């Protein structure tokens, strides 16, 4: 590796751990610094039920305090990054809670659907149980998370319509921030889970992004586009994704360059679906996409509308362009 490339990687490592979750001025995309100022009068807080919807369509009701929240000034330029109410989970969320209602047989696999293809990731629940429980709980809408935009705890599929907001060839693709710029926090963190058999030693490794130390993982994750041993001991590795070509295509889309390395055209994560698959990710197959409410279904017995055709055509064209760029960058 050249000295120039080495310096770039070191800078990327520092930025990867530092930007996510920083409570600082972030510009129009993130909405700016959080102050959480309350309106005059100091409204009293009253308990109200808060309703969440899981990936399976199940409604979950939990208690929340809404009076103080309604007194909080909410504008596009003010986010409430620090929760004004306690974590409904009490800071603890188990794997049993995360997989409740799922089949008991088969390897846990995350199907990450993106604009440039689908990743299938084996999840290592036996070696990183708390991290996997958190990831599954967020994906399925069973783990409550703090929405700084609305100032409330939510229980709904977290990763739906997020993006890969940072892409660095031969290093990582990072995503899973609901604010879309890497500054989002979700009201809690999870501890580092080291395991002697899991390292940043190959492309496709799935790991939890951190903020200011290895015990500050939350929701954002990254997938390696190549070995990155300099990250060992800094973040929990909890899975392995395939195919690697999808990771490589995402890592090589046109981007803004240092320090943000943000794709010029967002790479959307349509959803993260959790399954149990006999044979694991190697045997997984793409499932029928679940469209958000109000969007027409596309599949058996249904025809795509004009807007959907434009979207599908755009996705196909982007995949072809990214694949061609990847072929040109790789030696024969």
TrEMBL record:
<dbReference type="InterPro" id="IPR044666">
    <property type="entry name" value="Cyclophilin_A-like"/>
</dbReference>
<dbReference type="GO" id="GO:0006457">
    <property type="term" value="P:protein folding"/>
</dbReference>
<feature type="compositionally biased region" description="Basic and acidic residues">
    <location>
        <begin position="310"/>
        <end position="332"/>
    </location>
</feature>
<feature type="domain" description="PPIase cyclophilin-type">
    <location>
        <begin position="113"/>
        <end position="274"/>
    </location>
</feature>
<protein>
    <recommendedName>
        <fullName>peptidylprolyl isomerase</fullName>
        <ecNumber>5.2.1.8</ecNumber>
    </recommendedName>
</protein>
<feature type="compositionally biased region" description="Basic and acidic residues">
    <location>
        <begin position="75"/>
        <end position="84"/>
    </location>
</feature>
<feature type="region of interest" description="Disordered">
    <location>
        <begin position="67"/>
        <end position="92"/>
    </location>
</feature>
<dbReference type="GO" id="GO:0003755">
    <property type="term" value="F:peptidyl-prolyl cis-trans isomerase activity"/>
</dbReference>
<dbReference type="Pfam" id="PF00160">
    <property type="entry name" value="Pro_isomerase"/>
</dbReference>
<dbReference type="InterPro" id="IPR029000">
    <property type="entry name" value="Cyclophilin-like_dom_sf"/>
</dbReference>
<comment type="similarity">
    <text>Belongs to the cyclophilin-type PPIase family.</text>
</comment>
<dbReference type="InterPro" id="IPR020892">
    <property type="entry name" value="Cyclophilin-type_PPIase_CS"/>
</dbReference>
<feature type="region of interest" description="Disordered">
    <location>
        <begin position="283"/>
        <end position="332"/>
    </location>
</feature>
<keyword id="KW-0697">Rotamase</keyword>
<keyword id="KW-0413">Isomerase</keyword>
<dbReference type="InterPro" id="IPR002130">
    <property type="entry name" value="Cyclophilin-type_PPIase_dom"/>
</dbReference>
């Amino acid at each position: 590796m050249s000295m120039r490339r080495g310096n770039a990687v070191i800078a990327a490592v520092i930025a990867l751990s530092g930007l996510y979750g920083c409570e600082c001025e972030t510009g129009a995309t993130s909405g700016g610094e959080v102050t959480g100022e309350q309106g005059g009068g100091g409204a009293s807080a009253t308990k109200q039920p808060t309703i969440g919807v899981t990936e399976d369509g199940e409604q979950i009701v939990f208690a929340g305090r809404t009076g103080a929240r309604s007194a909080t000034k909410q504008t596009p330029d003010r986010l409430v990054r620090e929760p004004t109410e306690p974590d409904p989970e009490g800071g603890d969320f188990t794997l049993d809670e995360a997989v409740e209602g799922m089949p008991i047989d088969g390897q846990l696999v995350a199907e990450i659907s993106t604009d440039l293809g689908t990743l299938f990731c084996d999840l290592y629940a036996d070696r990183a149980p708390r991290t996997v429980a958190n990831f599954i709980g967020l994906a399925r809408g069973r783990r409550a998370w703090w929405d700084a935009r609305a100032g409330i705890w939510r229980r709904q599929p977290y990763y739906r319509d997020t993006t890969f907001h940072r892409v660095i060839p031969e290093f990582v693709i990072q995503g899973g921030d609901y604010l879309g710029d890497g500054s989002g926090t979700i009201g809690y963190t999870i501890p580092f889970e080291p395991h002697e058999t899991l390292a940043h030693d190959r492309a496709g490794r799935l790991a939890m992004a951190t903020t200011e130390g290895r015990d500050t993982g939350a929701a954002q994750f990254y997938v390696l586009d190549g070995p990155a041993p300099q990250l060992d001991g800094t973040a929990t590795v909890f899975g392995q994704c395939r195919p690697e070509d999808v990771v490589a295509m995402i890592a090589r889309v046109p981007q803004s360059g240092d320090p943000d390395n943000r794709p010029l055209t967002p790479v959307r994560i349509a959803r993260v679906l959790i399954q149990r698959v006999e044979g694991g990710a190697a045997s997984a197959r793409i499932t029928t996409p679940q469209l958000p409410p109000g969007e027409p279904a596309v599949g058996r017995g249904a025809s795509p509308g004009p807007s959907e055709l434009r979207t599908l055509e755009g996705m196909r064209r982007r995949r072809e362009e990214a694949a061609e760029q990847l072929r040109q960058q790789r030696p024969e």
